[in-house]
Amino acid sequence: AQSVAQPEDQVNVAEGNPLTVKCTYSVSGNPYLFWYVQYPNRGLQFLLKYITGDNLVKGSYGFEAEFNKSQTSFHLKKPSALVSDSALYFCAVRDSRVIYNQGGKLIFGQGTELSVKP
Amino acid sequence: NAGVTQTPKFQVLKTGQSMTLQCAQDMNHNSMYWYRQDPGMGLRLIYYSASEGTTDKGEVPNGYNVSRLNKREFSLRLESAAPSQTSVYFCASSEGQDRYTEAFFGQGTRLTVV
User: Fold this and answer.
1) Rounded CA gap, B114 and B81, in Å?
2) Average pLDDT over chain A, rounded to whole?
3) How many residue contacts between A and B have a Cβ separation below 8 Å?
4) Do A103 and B106 touch (CB under 8 A)?
5) Is B63:B46 a contact under the CB 8 Å cutoff?
6) Measured between alpha carbons, how far is A88 from A40 in angstroms, rounded to an integer?
7) First-to-last CA distance in chain A?
8) In sequence order, what are the beta bridge partners of B49?
9) pLDDT at residue number A99
10) CB-based contact B102 A51, cutoff 8 Å
11) A87 phi and psi angles, rounded to 5 deg
12) pLDDT tens for residues B56-101?
């Protein structure tokens, strides 16, 4: 069964410092990996995804993520954090090994609260 | 372009009451999903519909039923609400047949069962 783990409930960083939000996954086949952000009282917004190819993926708002197959990880990073980056971040995975036309379940981690202080 | 629209946004139910959460998408997506979000639990998949005419159970289907009314609409029904179903419910959709496409989410329904 596919699963996602986000080992940190909360990450605290100072504005201007680099940030990392960790994610590890487990799937049978090759993973399709996603990061989403949720601001208070809002739905989830898509940030970036890894499907295949370059292990470093760039997304919205200056975020990037690094896929590491050997460590089954897909950590979210940003070189310089902003106070406005403070939000709840979710990692998600879909298994590529599903029967065609069955869509495939999108499974989420438990979320990491990012707090960026001035 | 509205994307994914959920109704209602807020609801309070008494234990044992029933209700249906509505979801509609205007992106011509094949797959639709219902999730619940609880503190510390992340998003858990209740049901999903890979395409019109099909539905499948997710991680936490007990106490819920779904209907894929047509390609646009996917409703979630609570037949006899329980306090454990107090949560924020999100509907999402994705292209589906291309499994690497991202999902788009509605704004959520905050449900309280008293």
Assistant:
1) 9
2) 90
3) 75
4) no
5) no
6) 8
7) 41
8) B32
9) 52
10) no
11) 180, -175
12) 898 899 999 999 989 999 999 999 999 999 999 999 998 865 667 7
